[in-house]
From TrEMBL:
<comment type="similarity">
    <text>Belongs to the peptidase S8 family.</text>
</comment>
<feature type="transmembrane region" description="Helical">
    <location>
        <begin position="158"/>
        <end position="181"/>
    </location>
</feature>
<keyword id="KW-0472">Membrane</keyword>
<feature type="transmembrane region" description="Helical">
    <location>
        <begin position="73"/>
        <end position="91"/>
    </location>
</feature>
<feature type="active site" description="Charge relay system">
    <location>
        <position position="534"/>
    </location>
</feature>
<keyword id="KW-1133">Transmembrane helix</keyword>
<feature type="compositionally biased region" description="Pro residues">
    <location>
        <begin position="452"/>
        <end position="469"/>
    </location>
</feature>
<feature type="transmembrane region" description="Helical">
    <location>
        <begin position="41"/>
        <end position="61"/>
    </location>
</feature>
<dbReference type="GO" id="GO:0004252">
    <property type="term" value="F:serine-type endopeptidase activity"/>
</dbReference>
<feature type="active site" description="Charge relay system">
    <location>
        <position position="497"/>
    </location>
</feature>
<protein>
    <submittedName>
        <fullName>Peptidase S8</fullName>
    </submittedName>
</protein>
<feature type="transmembrane region" description="Helical">
    <location>
        <begin position="259"/>
        <end position="277"/>
    </location>
</feature>
<feature type="region of interest" description="Disordered">
    <location>
        <begin position="450"/>
        <end position="469"/>
    </location>
</feature>
<dbReference type="InterPro" id="IPR000209">
    <property type="entry name" value="Peptidase_S8/S53_dom"/>
</dbReference>
<dbReference type="InterPro" id="IPR023828">
    <property type="entry name" value="Peptidase_S8_Ser-AS"/>
</dbReference>
<keyword id="KW-0645">Protease</keyword>
<feature type="transmembrane region" description="Helical">
    <location>
        <begin position="289"/>
        <end position="314"/>
    </location>
</feature>
Length: 785
């Protein structure tokens, strides 16, 4: 009874601690916070200490050898959890470093635990048992080969090394001495499989909880316990095949051990090598990586139980025949080939590692770009000059590095909006690039691993509103249409987001058209498409017809910079570069860009946090280029309020960006709207707009209400479109446009103390200059000369 209670305590405590730790991580990410590095090590140490406190007496006090063996195994598992859990202090984006540390740590623990055993207990499992264990491990790996995908070459090799070390560690804990405590009179039957398998399962749960970064360890602690039964069922095979049936003595602690390490090593490669821990995140909603990771873990556990049952039936009977080695070889080969077929035929073969975003030291000088011509002509002249200078800088400074990359046969993609190059390479390439005199810094460019099936696209179930909804009437957009006879005609708004459903009835007529109004660097689609829905909603709020958009007469162009709600510095730059100088499908941005076709205003309901690879200044060159070119850059403040100082993900904190927060229908700043000050101490946001329960378009022709500063941002872009449509002389005059918006902004209902988290300083860091007023801004714009 004591052993049962200790086992339940270990399982329950570890499961709750690991799940809670992951949820805390996710809440911190969603809230825009950074969890302290000591959280995971402390969680592992406390968890291990509480288990050790009850497992240690169990290892020495009871008379029963089986109970003592359980206590020793669980105590060793707790030690593994304490030591390997410390490795989660390594930042999650540095998964290669983590895997290398895990491989070394697990191997050292295995050596230490083997050193505490007597030499008489060391033995090797028989060949047929090893082959059957490999077959079982490969069967357990099958679901991962279907739903998962490998990372980069270095990451994959390190994952294999870590899996092998973890298998060796598991075998060091569950050695022959452990299994001998559960032998029955004949060494076969229910007792060794059921009792030994249960105790081994609890041990492997503790090992699994220590393996993998935050997220992937949940899969390991779920699937590894089930492999305990398969290992237990192979105990008679290992012993009889090695010593012969007559020579086998149940309870012999020096006898052959089952091939624990082989089975565990192959099985644990699934969560270590075929899934990126960064993607096991609540940021990826719907049927994405977290969902498929759960499917794979559940499938693996089910397969392990089935294999364990099959092996127990086949080998557990007293007179069961142990197969020859060739039978094990054929079985292992068949399952391995089946796994390869599943991965190639149903999965995603190949490598999907992170790329490197290399920022060059030399950046273009964009100072002094002016023009005497007002309006469209002056704006176009500035765009052309900015484009020329950017191209000249990139061409003059990237040559040496690009020649070296060609020589080393490393694939790369150059950029000019920021003088940078995206390079395919691992840690060694990153170190080499970082040591070059012409390189400023090297960032990770997060790549998303593919899914076995695309998640369902967002859909809307509501009809088009018969009259303008609250968000449009609150800012007076409807009055601009009816009383000032302005709807944004003549202005083009660029949307960089998850895409746009170009066939939606509220958006189809507003698409600018031509061969340079749509770009999809993620999936290569040739016509406006939206797999997520976020971009269709935001574009609709800016320029949609049917009573949803602020500037329904304006046109739009689009680009996909988010895939499954994640991006990276290179994909964000792909779209921004396209917005400065659009190019046709398959065109080269360096030679085929058309700066005269640049949109007037950009709406950007996204941010690039460190999780995606950006640092604080990653996109400063891009927004500075748009400012110099007279293109208004509007960006969402973020949804990490009510914490003060939460406007920190590029591009929202930048001074040359018009940053937008959100208010609700009552006129108060929403709790989720991010607050300033920006990291440099400047006041942010600049303005607020309706962002709570905003009705707009969704893919498929329907409509839905969403909330966020993402919904507020396109409304400010739409107001700017109305202003420039009413007075074309303002086109490209960012300072005057911004001044008018700020000076005509309406008051916001003051926040209560409970709506603030921390010291935001001045009220402008919560509400900016106030609520954007479309009617007042357009009326002022018409009067401006």
């Amino acid at each position: 009874m004591a052993a049962v209670l200790v086992g339940l305590w270990a399982v329950g405590l570890t499961t709750v601690a690991q799940t809670t730790g992951w949820l805390v991580d996710q809440v911190a990410i969603v809230a825009g916070l950074t969890a302290p590095v000591w959280v995971w090590p402390l969680t592992s140490l406390v968890d291990a200490a509480l288990i050790s406190a009850v497992a240690a007496p169990l290892a020495v006090v009871p008379r029963s050898a089986a109970v003592r063996a359980a206590g020793r195994a669980w105590l060793c598992g707790a030690i593994v959890l304490a030591v390997l859990g410390l490795l989660r202090a390594i930042p999650q984006p540095q998964n290669e470093l983590y895997l290398a540390a895990l491989a070394a740590g697990a191997a050292l623990l295995a050596v230490a635990m083997r050193a505490t055993r007597g030499r008489g207990r060391r033995s090797r499992p028989a060949g047929v048992a090893v082959l059957l264990a490999v077959a079982a491990g490969a069967a357990v790996l099958l679901p991962w080969l279907w739903v998962g995908a490998l990372g980069g070459l270095t990451e994959t090799v390190l994952a294999a090394a870590a899996a092998a070390a973890v298998g060796w560690l598991a075998a060091s804990i569950l050695d022959a001495g452990f299994w001998s405590a559960y032998d029955g009179p004949t060494g076969r039957g229910v007792r060794p499989v059921l009792l030994g398998g249960l105790v081994a399962g609890v041990t492997l749960l503790l090992v699994g909880a220590a393996v993998g970064h935050s997220g992937s360890q949940l899969a390991a602690l779920f699937l590894l316990p089930a492999t305990g039964f398969a290992v237990a069922a192979l105990r008679p095979v290992a012993a009889v095949a090695a010593q012969g049936s007559a020579a086998y003595r149940p309870g012999d602690a020096s006898g052959p051990r089952p091939p624990v390490g082989w089975l565990v090593a192959v099985a644990v490669f699934g969560p270590l090598g075929l899934v990126d821990p960064e993607e096991i995140s609540l940021v990826l909603i719907d049927r994405d990586i977290p969902f498929w990771t759960a499917v794979a873990a559940g499938g693996s556990a089910a397969v392990a139980l089935v294999v364990g049952l099959a092996y127990a039936i086949a080998f557990g009977r007293a007179r069961a025949v142990i197969p020859h080695r060739w039978v094990g070889a054929v079985t292992a080969a068949a399952v391995v080939l089946a796994g390869a077929a599943v991965h190639v035929g149903l999965g995603h073969p190949g490598l999907y590692g992170e790329r490197l975003f290399v920022v060059m030291k030399e950046q273009a000088d964009l100072t002094g770009i002016t023009t005497a011509e007002p309006g469209q002509a002056g704006r176009d002249a500035k765009v052309r000059e900015v484009h020329r200078r950017l191209l000249a800088t990139a061409a003059g400074s990237q040559g040496d590095l690009r020649r070296e990359l060609d020589r080393l046969r490393l694939s790369y993609k150059p950029y000019y909006l920021i003088n940078a190059i995206e390079v395919d390479g691992g840690p060694a390439v990153r170190a080499w690039l970082g040591s070059r005199a012409d390189v400023d810094r090297v960032l990770l460019s997060q790549e998303i691993r593919p899914l076995p099936a695309a998640p369902p696209p967002g859909r809307g179930t509501e009809p088009a509103p018969p009259t303008p909804p609250w968000h449009l009437t609150t800012i007076g957009a409807d009055r601009v249409w009816s009383q000032l006879d302005t709807d944004g005609a003549g202005i083009v708004v660029g949307s960089s987001d998850s895409g746009v459903d170009g066939s939606h009835p509220a958006l189809a007529a507003g698409f600018r058209g031509g061969d340079d109004s749509w770009y999809d660097p993620w999936n290569g689609t040739r016509t406006p498409t939206d797999r997520g829905g976020h971009g269709t909603h935001t574009a609709g709020s800016a320029v949609g017809r049917d009573n949803i958009g602020v500037a329904p007469g304006a046109q739009w162009v689009g680009c996909v910079n988010l895939d499954r709600n994640l991006g990276n510095p290179a994909r964000y730059l792909d779209c921004l570069q396209f917005m400065l100088a659009p190019f046709p499908p398959g065109g080269d941005p360096f030679t085929d860009g058309r700066p005269d076709r640049a949109p007037h205003i950009l709406t950007n309901s996204w941010g690039c946090p460190g999780l995606e690879g950006c640092d604080a200044t990653a996109l400063t060159g891009a927004t500075a280029a748009f400012a110099a070119a007279g293109i208004l850059f509007v960006a969402a403040a973020g949804n990490t309020g009510p914490f003060c100082g939460s406007i920190d993900d590029p591009p929202a904190p930048y001074a040359d960006v018009l940053t937008v927060g959100a208010v609700n229908e009552s006129g108060q700043v929403t709790d989720f709207s991010s607050r300033g000050p920006a990291p440099d101490g400047s006041a942010k946001p600049d303005l607020v707009a309706p962002g709570d329960d905003v009705l707009s378009a969704m893919p498929g022709g329907g409509y839905a209400s969403n909330s966020g500063t993402s919904m507020a941002t396109p409304q400010v872009a739409g107001v700017a479109a109305l202003m420039w449509s009413a007075n074309p002389a303002l086109i490209g005059d960012l300072a005057t446009t911004r001044q008018i918006m700020v000076e005509t902004a309406a008051e916001v209902v003051p926040p209560t103390p409970s709506q603030l988290e921390g010291d935001c300083g001045q009220l402008a860091n919560v509400e900016g200059a106030g609520l954007v007023d479309a009617y007042a801004a357009v009326e002022r714009a018409r009067q401006t000369r």
